[in-house]
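Session log. Operator J.P. requested a structure for one protein chain; no other inputs attached. Running the standard single-chain path with token output.
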Amino acid sequence: MHKWRRSALILGVLTLLGTLAVPYFLKSEDAPTPRRTSTPRKSTGLVLPPPAPRAEGSLRIQGIVHGDQGPLAGVRISATRSEAHQTLSELTCEEVLPHRRGDRHGFADCFFTEPATTLELLLSRQGEAPLYAETVTDTDGRFTLEQLPEGPFTLWALGPRGARLQPGVVAGTQGLQLRLEEGVFLEGTVIDEDLAALPQVQVMAVHQGFTRFFDVETDADGRYRIGPLPVGDYALAFTKDGWIPDLKDSVFAEPVKLLRPHRIVGRVMRQGTPVPHATVQLRDITFNERGIAPPLLSSKQETTDAQGRFTFEALSLRLFRLEATQGEHHGRAEVPMWTHDSKQEVLLSLSPGAMLEGTVKDEAGAAIEGALVQLQERGLKPRYVKTTTDATGHYRLGPLALAPHELELTSPRHFPTSESVAELSPGTKRLDFTLRTPLWVDGVLVDEAGSPVPDMHITVDNPPSEDTDDTLLLAPYEAVSDEQGRFHLNFPTPGPFLLKLLDEPRFRMEELQIQAPDTQVRWVLKRGAAVSGGVFDELDTPLSGLRVRLSTEPPEEGTTNSPEQGVLSETWTDAQGHYAFGGMKPGQYVLEALHDSGAVERFATRHLELRERQEAHVDLRLEAGWTLSGTVVDNQGQPLSGADVFIEPPQDSTPPWRVGYRHHTVELLTRTREDGRFTLRNLSSRDVELRVKKQSFRLAPHLSTGGEIGLDSLHAHEGGPPVRFVMSRQARIHGRVVGPDGKPLTRFRVMREVVEHPRGEFSLDVVAAGARPVIFQAEDLAPVFRQVEVPHDAGVVDLGEVRMSAGRKVAGRVLDAETSAPVESALLVPDLEHSDSVRLHPYTTWTQAYTNKDGRFIIARVDEHSATLNIRAHGYLSKKLTLAPGSQEDLTVRMEKGARVELSVLDAKGRPTSATVFLDREGAESFPYSIEVPAEGPFVVRDLAPGTYRVNASAGEGGLESYHSQRIQIPASGGVSITVKARSEGATLELRVNSPLLFTLALVSGEDPWPKQGYDLSSLRERSLPHEVGKEGTMTFRNLPAGKLTLFLITNDWRGSYRELIDIPETGTVVRDVTPKWQAVRQ
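Structure written below.
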């Protein structure tokens, strides 16, 4: 284990050298001609071992680089090699970070959890894989890398239109064939605290897998663009003199904001006297939007000088907690940097703290060494301290704040325990623990030769099922074997248990029955049959990092087994393109490798049969396909860059061994270049369905060419003309948001989108014409609502200046009108303009409040234009209260109950049953009102406004009853009894839908229009009449009422919709074959 030297971190370390190595990035169609300069490493607090002298040799690597039209000239080829204990991609987290002892993940996995360390290394240019050779391909696409020592190298092929990364190429290789791939561009904008563009920012892109640095500088508009680079995971470091550096993931889409450095200066005092040599810790406690604070280990520490002073430099605008300790004394302060004056000293006053100590023993009185003691200060998350017990079982924590704490105590071979520690007082409090001992199962894993098997994940297939405290305390019932193959499990009760291995490709997936307790378990693992090989592209070049999946041969059609049950394991090819699976039982298997490039995915599949202990070698080769090129333009013919092109897989094209298996966590896509062009390579199907997306645009299928027009797509064919997508600008609403003083607001929210703009400008895309609610929100200001009418699908509405104010306070009580009792959990919402016709998305936030148990409510900020207040409470009629101008802090709202409405549901035989009853008020556009009526009814409601209602019911999922529809008059007071009865007679509808697309269906009574909002479809499905599905897919609806029914269909991918009216007679059977003419759904 290597230990790195660490010293204090200073801001100068976190600024990049004025002279940087010139990057490998492409700005034009020309091949790059990088200059390499030897830049001395800056002094830094974190120092990796110096690179070993670069070995030289006499070996070569020769090959040819291919493009779409054949060999490519002018492609720059480089050879690098990662060095053990020096290159970042070869280091583990524990090697770089002493506090992460035992963390054997590659350091690239710690890049973003330890950003300060990562920046320190990157900006001092430590840990890059050394460059051994470099050249440019000739006119025939040939290259030769010379003077190489023995061993494998990583080759980088960088051209103006693509890139390729080829690891594991051994020196001496001849005839290597490399096909350039699409590559990726890393681009974005860097801004300052005032949202102004920042020029001359140094941007470093770091390939996390093989640690190569690519550098560029932002232009006058703060923009940067690096690429094309090989596909992979990249970290981006941003630095500029006088600004705090930042680290981002390459998928970060927002502008990068660099901040000016701020500082905290302070003093530690005790009874008015400066305290030298006190320890001061600074911790970032800023919660993000998901309520998560930074890691506890992301803190800084200083020691006070002789005058008790301390300084923390290079701080951003965050909320920090300062804690000072010396001996048994403790002091604390919180500093919000956005209001803190850096010239003002922060005073930390030490006062006597509390110390907590004790011993931890087992039930026999023996000391327990290594028990973990964690102490969490109540109400101050995240704030905990921890320690482990020594050889005598002793622990000591402190100094601690004089506040209640929660203590947790864990030990690998004992029941954990916890304790609430009451308010602590100065001095030492003793707290001893006796841990109970569970039943132990200790064992060892060995192979058939008797050698230990490490790193095996073991799980208990039938863990204790009793829902007791002891059972929960020991969960989860899992273990991992150590280097000697040993494992340990704890059980609360004796009994038989079944052990299984978790997704282990080396050995057969066998089980072991054990009896707890048992400390002499010996599990002999059998290797079984094995299959290994390589994965190659169409040029017979090995492919690294590809997913290879092994599954059992799927059962024949008609059997009951699920294809998902056949998934055995998956792995990824190594640097030489090799894969291996072991531990298989005899049988038939499917072996498949997956390769994706942009929007295109290819599979190499082999079916094989393995015998007992057979070691099979199977190579997988990807077949070459055809190439499709196209462009994406707007309706003026101007190219659109950054448009995403997708391939829609054909319906029912998935073979049975892939059914139910998700290959990707993100959607596969190819993005258009600056000229609007895109290229899809190695297509396997002769016909492809293409879709395109770009923010603020929608496809105009009737203007697009190069294939057959689909719903929102184009069907292209091999050998057909180039594809030309035409996209039209969506309708939009724009304007400018200002504060009470008329100055632009630079940060606010429009609907659910956060907007940052130096002039307060916003632009909101609109899917279709019509009335649209727009809500503006900003910190410490009252939300503002606007109802906007968009005239047509490409309309532009200018709201001009939207002024936000501090608003006014509205507070009071909600009481029962009859008894004056407080009404708890009443909802109060300031009126939206034309609120009866406004439909907000369910997740749209708006100003609102709920009453407490005393019926009181406070809405701190209400817009002056909100003239009314809407009040709703369960069991009461909704109420609307007129608000007078100015603050209203003593309102009294009296809620009245409506008519007593009793609801009962009967089945066709007149017996009580349960159902969902729907009441729709005629003549008013309102939210759907549904009531779950139990079989034990009647169910009483008192919050229905007077009026005429249409009453329908649904039996719910699995029920086949249909119900009589009624029109009911609900009075303002009094009582009404409504009985909804299932129908026992009526017409029958036999419905067949002819479509290759998968869809969702709803059939409802009456002539209902298509829902205005997509999220209303779920409500529509709840009202759907029940049906049975026959063997050939015929849907049979029985006991239907005479009149018109409305059929709604929507494809499962929400791309197509269809609506049709069906006339139903009094009796008889109607047979309807529907071939939907799908209409595109606007999203």
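Operator note: The first strand starts at residue 5 and ends at 6.
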